[in-house]
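Co-fold these.
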Amino acid sequence: MKLATLKGAGRDGQLVVVSRDLSKAVAVPQVAATLQAALDDWSRIAPKLAEVAAALEQGSAKDAFAFDPVQAMAPLPRAYHWVDGSAYVNHVELVRKARGAQMPESFWTDPLVYQGGSDDFLGARQDVPLPSEEHGIDLEGEVAIITDDVPMGTTRAAALGHIKLIMLVNDWSLRNLIPGELAKGFGFYQSKPATAFSPVAVTPDELGAAWSEGKVHLPLVVHINGQPFGKPNAGVDMTFDFARLVEHITLTRNARAGTVLGSGTISNYDRSLGSACIAERRTLEQIEQGKPVTPFLKFGDSVRIEMFDDAGRSIFGAIDQKVVRA
Amino acid sequence: MKLATLKGAGRDGQLVVVSRDLSKAVAVPQVAATLQAALDDWSRIAPKLAEVAAALEQGSAKDAFAFDPVQAMAPLPRAYHWVDGSAYVNHVELVRKARGAQMPESFWTDPLVYQGGSDDFLGARQDVPLPSEEHGIDLEGEVAIITDDVPMGTTRAAALGHIKLIMLVNDWSLRNLIPGELAKGFGFYQSKPATAFSPVAVTPDELGAAWSEGKVHLPLVVHINGQPFGKPNAGVDMTFDFARLVEHITLTRNARAGTVLGSGTISNYDRSLGSACIAERRTLEQIEQGKPVTPFLKFGDSVRIEMFDDAGRSIFGAIDQKVVRA
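Predicted complex below.
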């Protein structure tokens, strides 16, 4: 099934079930008022949502209406836990290579994650207000999962069953703030502004065979200002699958229901597929041409991120946003 | 006024108003079911909670009952944003000195913060389940504030008015996991397990003159296994006050209602006052005796953190927890 959150009375919006083709939606206040409420009691709530989804597909859902992604908030408009991996290690290797730095061998076996701001997620069509172009505004196209309660010490084998929903992410980044923050040693904070999510989150079964071994085996299609920018495959060159990432984040703590876990910028060794962030393209330009050419984003620029099934149908709806001055 | 959250039907517990002397409480479902709900609409809700608090002090509150801190969850049992500073820069300087590293001058002017896990906060009397003593289990005694909605670009001058509640923190840390994580460059994750908070959060006015210029001018009293360990003053040697920290965290993003912002381990240049974490004491031992002597914590060890007013009354109640094997 597919779920979305529409703007509503409260900060957490209103949970709706969306049809497979993203054309229709139906509110489910009798089942769960918000997606967080559904996740808090997922094993009991999910079957009821699935019943509504089935009725919607059959055309028998009462009070169905046209689904408008412009009205969608992030599926979780705010969350208690947003942790983003860097699972495409070839991307990390590449960026390090460009600045002449060695990457430790352990990066191939020990996942890299950081915890991001989850109190103020952006909807898929919301403008992205940022204070300055000087900060080096960049996208990061990713896939993310949402879990139920995952206890401390969960193994990779047990982790897969905790993955309840999948969505797309634009992990907006401010590149020129990153070197200073990383030099301080405490990781990202100011360099990671509000993150955006696809209009719709889907259960893994919606992906069919494209969901296997904790990876989404489909290209992520990125456009900047309407021009194709990249379409790396999220299932290729993902060093750490989502189950391994879940294992990593629960070594010393529980991950509670509604944990959002990102893949990190999708990146393939096949450079002909383009990139899911400008920083990577600039790095390739640096290596191939001696200097970066592609500029970071300016106010007014737009970024579209989408993923299609084998029949060309949009799975999650598009993240399609414009950067604006805050 | 003083607020607490008691274990209740849901994950977010039940908001109660607590008497100034921490002896009595009264539930306020008619005002706000949870502390997050109160913070989401603070300007409207706070005056109503203050009315209840006044009635409780006067002995006229209906259905008041004895307040039991054992029944208290963290004031926010889960939060959308937990960001911890490192505002006592002399502590950072000391730790670096012990390992022969220079501290950049910018650390005196540019705050250091990291974002921690907020989906699974611990109540003040809950056991602290951890997987291994080998991880180097340590406390970090701190003060934290809770904000309402703070817009991007808030200045230090404007920040003070957004500080709505104050509480105590034990930012549990796993010291032996920190070097590896910091070397990876993305900051803390596995090295920061679930964080614990005092039974009660208080409005700044409850501190009287002890709350000034965005600092709490009182000693934080730390005991380990019933023995005094440290009582550094939270208002002394705090390089960045809470208003400055709020300014820092809103440079590129909004901080939404219920943001929890910590001071970092309290540390004074006057070493006779002891420390609020074992790592600092070990660092001093390293410098003075050539090697660290005090061990990190073992399963069964307990840590008590409390703060008293000038008349010796506990302000927030005590964080008093035992470390146990997960």
